[in-house]
Specification:
The chain is 46% helix and 13% strand. The protein is of the alpha+beta class. The strands form two sheets. A seven-stranded antiparallel β-sheet has the order 1-9-6-11-4-3-2. The chain is elongated and about 85 Å long.
């Protein structure tokens, strides 16, 4: 993470005569040794001979800023940007100094340019948020702050890091507060959608879950082996396993085993693009589980038909009958998060380490497709084995792990359905929450154009 207020890479300057280069190097040595008057004199000599020398303009601007000569610093950075208009640090520091000088409106353009040049650098987004907030542009401030947090998730930890600069901590605190305000407005949109779905429905369970999700109520788990980190409704039953007989769609899926198995075997024969379920950089999950033993490994691999409520059409075409039956299942739909529909393979001797799912509002469903002996899954305190053509349903917010102690790969079809105790209004509220949340995050994706002032709507 790059700290605000520091230069993170050297700036090139225009080609100059050797004597100018020597003067600049002398100025740099003096600055590094703390002889600031000498450094300033040498920078002036450089600029007298080469007024467009970017390095000297920039270094002199920093010295002027440190001496609180803000107008001079702004002018020098303006001249440097005129020479190198697409330099991200020059634009950022120009906006930074303008903001320090109380010229928030003037700071917007260079900060926006810096954020466009390098959308993944959090600092321009953060300072843009500050400028918009001072100017009373609350919606734009929320967007900029959200972009900063997406670009650098580690900013959340800076607030409690007393070794970080106090001013930076204050800005991040303001960012978190404003983003939390927007996130809670999204909850309001979701609850309103639930009320429209059924004006008489009791939404207290889902509202409590949203309160916990957004830090307005303590997250207290109702079972020692249950620790979802995202959406958690404590008023739902603490039940790890669910019985297949209670779901009327189960026979329809189980009857399709021969067709599903044929399509899976074809994928295996054709060496289709199964990929590691845990990516190379996914050693730690969002739930905090250490998946380093599986990161980038084909020990646990998958072929996705749907990922985060998005059908992967090219893969669906290769598995038309499996796709048809999966489209007929009443899947849990949460835009950007569910359903996840895939063939999951666990290689011989493989072990999926104990871990928790992120929420308890949906059940994970497995249908055994190719299941050798000595394969099992533990959910909570109970272990069950797969059977080919038989459905298993469980709440993956409970700790669960799986193993294959055979000499052949184990393959199951995995998908997700709503928790059966949710009512229609609660499901409508959850769906709208994830829709509105994804719309907001897509709008704030680093590199996306700012939207005009607006309020969330259903």
């Amino acid at each position: 993470m790059r700290a605000v207020g520091t230069l993170t890479r050297p700036l090139s300057h225009m080609a100059a005569e050797p004597n100018i280069d020597a003067l600049f190097e002398s100025a740099e040595r003096a600055r590094q040794e703390g002889r600031l008057d000498a450094a300033l004199a040498d920078y002036d000599r450089v600029l007298a001979r080469a007024p467009a020398h970017v390095g000297a303009l920039y270094r002199k601007a920093l010295l002027a800023f440190q001496a609180n000569r803000l107008a001079e610093s702004v002018a020098l950075l303006r001249d440097a940007c005129a020479v190198k208009p697409d330099d991200v640090e020059l634009n950022f520091y120009r906006g930074f100094v303008l903001l320090a000088a109380g010229q928030e409106q003037e700071a917007l353009a260079p900060l926006e340019r810096a954020s466009a040049i390098n959308p993944q650098w959090y600092a321009p987004h953060l300072k843009l948020g500050v400028a918009h907030l001072v100017l009373g542009q609350r919606d734009k401030a929320q967007q900029s702050f959200q972009r900063a947090l997406i670009a650098e998730p580690g900013l959340r930890a800076v607030v409690v890091d007393e070794s970080s600069p106090a001013a930076l901590r204050q800005e991040i605190h303001a960012a978190l507060k404003l983003v939390a305000e927007r996130e809670w407005a999204i909850v309001g949109v979701a609850l309103e959608a639930g009320r429209r779905a059924d004006p008489e429905a009791d939404l207290s369970r889902i509202e409590r879950g949203f309160r916990i999700q957004h830090g307005r109520e303590a997250r207290v788990f109702n079972h020692p082996l249950r620790q979802p980190k995202f959406l958690y409704l404590p008023d739902l039953p603490a039940t790890p396993w669910f019985e297949r007989e209670h779901f009327d769609w189960v026979p329809m899926v189980e009857q399709q085993l021969p067709a599903v198995r044929d399509e899976l075997e074809a994928l295996i024969r054709e060496e289709a693009e199964f990929i590691p379920y845990i990516s190379e950089d996914g050693g730690e999950s969002a739930s905090g589980t250490d998946f380093s033993s599986l990161a980038g490994s084909m020990v646990w691999n998958a072929f996705h038909l749907n990922l985060g409520d998005r059908w992967v059409e090219e893969r669906c075409r290769r598995c038309p009958q499996t796709t048809e039956v999966m489209r007929a299942v009443p899947a849990a739909r949460m835009r950007g998060s569910a359903p996840e529909i895939m063939f999951s393979r666990l290689q011989a001797g493989g072990h999926i380490v104990p871990h928790f799912g992120l929420m308890n509002v949906r059940l994970t469903v497995h249908m055994g497709v190719i299941v050798p002996d000595h394969c099992a899954i533990r959910v909570g305190e109970e272990t069950r084995g797969w059977q080919e053509g038989r459905i298993l349903l469980f709440d993956d917010s409970f700790e669960h792990e799986a193993w294959n102690r055979s000499d052949r790969d184990r393959s199951v079809l995995i998908f997700e359905v709503w928790h059966p105790t949710l009512n229609a209004a609660e499901i409508a509220a959850i769906e709208r929450y994830f829709d509105a949340r994804r719309e907001w995050l897509d709008l704030c994706k680093p590199g996306a154009a700012p939207a005009p002032e607006a309020t969330p709507s259903a």
